[in-house]
Amino acid sequence: MSEKSKVKRARREAEQEKKGKKVVNWIFGVLIVLAICYMIYVTILAA
After folding, report:
1. Residue 25: how many CA atoms within 13 Å on its side-chain side?
2. Per-residue pLDDT in tens (0 to 9) along the chain, 47 residues
3. Is the overall model pTM greater than 0.85, yes or no?
C-alpha cells in the first residue's frame, strides 16, 4: 500500500471516530432530555 493511501485511510478513520463520538453524545443528550420530560410528566400526573 502506498504512503498516500495510508495517510488517506488514517485521516478517514480519525474523521469517522470523531463523527461517531458526536453521534453518541447526541444520543445521550436526547435520552437525558426524554428522562427529564418523563420525570416532569410523572410528577404532574401524581399531583
Report:
1. 6
2. 688 899 999 999 999 999 999 999 999 999 999 999 999 999 999 87
3. no
